[in-house]
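Spend some time on the protein that follows and explain the fold to me:
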Amino acid sequence: MSDAELLAMQSALRRQLVQARKSRTMLFPFIGRSAQFQAWQHYPQNDAMDSSGAWQFYYHAHDASHEGGARHPQEHGHIHLFRRDGQGRLSHLAGLSMDPRGIPLAWFACNQWVTGERWKSAASMCHGLESLRLGLRGPLAGAALWFSDLVRAYAHPLRSMLLERDTALERYCHQQRVSTKEALQERSISVWSSFPISWPDDAVALRGQVCAYDNQRRST
């Protein structure tokens, strides 16, 4: 793991601790001020767009009785992150599943029909992940920076996940003898690829490894 990814993990952990000291989870900036949480509704209602206009995201949860339900057994809901092009068209980068305590569980790459996105290849989606910073003002500003930290911290596995998404799509088309357009609208497939994470254990364990390495260097 690079120094940049380590710093991103440490930053995300610090931001989460700030919320914890206020007896709040990382869900609070998204849904804590809502009178009643509703499945399928976007939080914030009109989505959040960063100051550059290049990124858009929101939190929501699915009704488990409907198609495309929870992305993880312990999931409460998930954050969807999109790239925006110059015409405001959205391409889905990744989703982040979170449990009821606001703890991240897994990253996933969904099928086109799930979000109605403008489909783009992994190669065109992955650039700039290591330097991502979602600049917002208002109640979601801190949560946006925390989410940015997580994207940077997991930049390499996110890139691998998107490449795996494209490979899975190509394999499915070949095996089922269907077109890419048909596969992207196949309702039986909501997620092409995903990977679980252990948060905040990943950050704590990595910090311990770095400290142990530093101590070893000082003693030699």
